[in-house]
């Protein structure tokens, strides 16, 4: 069976996901695309020799009879509208992060999906599929380093495009950390403080770059985070958890060491596409397979909502300079995995 997918937004990641669905993964065919930049949609159809209809807009694509499932890879601020329309049409939808740019927007999606009565939404938090992050999670679950106490992390990009706004360092960039640390630690955030160090002269004048983010979780873990989106030297994602009996760190991407011209050196990546290429492949193959089985396994609309509650608080903390409390509503049973319910009721 083949999942017929319609893609809304064929820019950087939309193009990448079309490439992997067409050339790398199994079980999906891109049958429809749309982009507000029609030339961009045409370019992708031609580049991958797709037998796909180019729709005027996302709403028309979602309504199309032959689109079984929707992929939303347009700008963050447009996600909410397309995810809500997909739910209204009863179609499974893979939405790139963020699920919506505010917690209020995510809440509307959670409510619509709950009212529909079946999970339809997966959010593109691909780090949960990254082998390195999974190894860190496994070490934490196994208790190898005892209980986690401190998490140190950094999200560094070489540079960002001109359209990158001040809020995007939180709602578009650090949102990955907000999701993956909640998942890694199996914990929720209770407070955040955002501190603005000396500003880099190499960042756009409208940006405050870098930023430091200090968070506390319900279990008392302290998170020290750095966001630096014009670091110039590479795409560098760091995560280290200090526990009672040891430290577990995210492995560096594989890279040869060179001895050459009187130097010992190791290359760094510069692009998110390469850094997480395997994670995106695994993530989307899982989405295709589970959607074909009529299930939805990956990061849920609730996870998207939880990350957005934290990112709203980060923005408030950045603007006020205060420590902002984060209050996370209790996760409804609709968003629990069946195995968690069994564990909670003692059924094995
Ligand atoms: N999971 C990850 O690591 C990554 C996720 N993303 C997310 O994917 C989304 C897109 O990011 P990029 O591809 O980097 O941006 P981009 O700007 O390269 O591409 C977005 C495309 O969407 C189109 N678009 C915008 N509004 C639209 C609308 N209403 N209808 C149809 N098309 C529309 C634009 O014309 C553009 O071609 C963002 O939400 C971003 O956060 C992006 C990069 C990596
Ligand atoms: O998701 C991504 C981009 O949208 C975002 O703008 C970058 O900062 C991240 O590193 C990348 O993974």
From TrEMBL:
One GO molecular-function entry: inositol 2-dehydrogenase (NAD+) activity
Reactions performed catalytically: 1D-chiro-inositol + NAD(+) = scyllo-inosine + NADH + H(+); myo-inositol + NAD(+) = scyllo-inosose + NADH + H(+)
Keyword Oxidoreductase: yes
Pathway: Polyol metabolism; myo-inositol degradation into acetyl-CoA; acetyl-CoA from myo-inositol: step 1/7
SUPFAM superfamilies in the cross-refs: Glyceraldehyde-3-phosphate dehydrogenase-like, C-terminal domain, NAD(P)-binding Rossmann-fold domains
Keywords, ordered alphabetically: NAD, Oxidoreductase
Assembly and binders: Homotetramer.
Name this protein carries in UniProt: Inositol 2-dehydrogenase/D-chiro-inositol 3-dehydrogenase
Gene giving rise to this polypeptide: iolG
């Amino acid at each position: 069976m083949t999942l017929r997918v319609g893609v809304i937004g064929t820019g950087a990641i939309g193009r990448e996901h079309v490439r992997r669905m067409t050339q790398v993964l199994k079980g999906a065919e891109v049958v429809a695309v749309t982009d507000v930049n029609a030339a961009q949609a045409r370019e992708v159809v031609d580049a991958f020799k797709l037998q796909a209809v180019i729709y005027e807009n996302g709403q028309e694509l979602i309504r199309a009879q032959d689109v079984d499932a929707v992929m939303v890879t347009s700008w963050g601020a447009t996600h909410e509208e397309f995810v809500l329309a997909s739910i209204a049409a009863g179609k499974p939808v893979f939405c790139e992060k963020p699920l919506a740019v505010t917690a209020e927007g995510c809440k509307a999606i959670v409510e619509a999906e709950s009212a529909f009565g079946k999970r339809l939404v997966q959010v593109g938090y691909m780090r949960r599929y990254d082998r390195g992050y999974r190894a860190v999670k496994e070490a934490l679950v196994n208790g190898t380093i005892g209980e986690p106490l401190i998490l140190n992390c950094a999200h560094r990009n070489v540079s960002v495009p001109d359209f990158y706004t001040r809020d995007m360092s939180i709602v578009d960039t650090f949102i990955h950390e907000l999701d993956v640390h909640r998942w890694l630690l199996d914990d929720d955030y209770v407070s955040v403080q955002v501190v603005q160090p000396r500003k880099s002269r190499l960042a756009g004048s409208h940006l405050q770059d870098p930023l430091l983010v200090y968070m506390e979780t319900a279990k008392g873990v302290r998170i020290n985070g750095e966001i630096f989106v014009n670091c110039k030297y590479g795409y560098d994602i760091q995560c280290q958890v200090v526990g009672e009996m040891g430290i577990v760190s995210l492995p560096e991407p594989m890279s040869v060491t060179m001895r050459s011209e009187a130097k010992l050196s190791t290359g760094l990546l510069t692009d998110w596409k390469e850094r997480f290429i395997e994670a995106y492949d695994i993530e989307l193959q899982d989405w295709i397979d589970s959607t074909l089985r009529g299930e939805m396994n990956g990061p849920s609309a609730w996870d998207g909502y939880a990350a957005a509650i934290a990112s709203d608080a980060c923005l408030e903390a950045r603007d006020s300079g205060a420590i902002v409390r984060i209050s996370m509503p209790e996760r409804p049973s609709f968003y629990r995995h069946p195995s968690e319910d069994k564990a909670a009721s003692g059924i094995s």
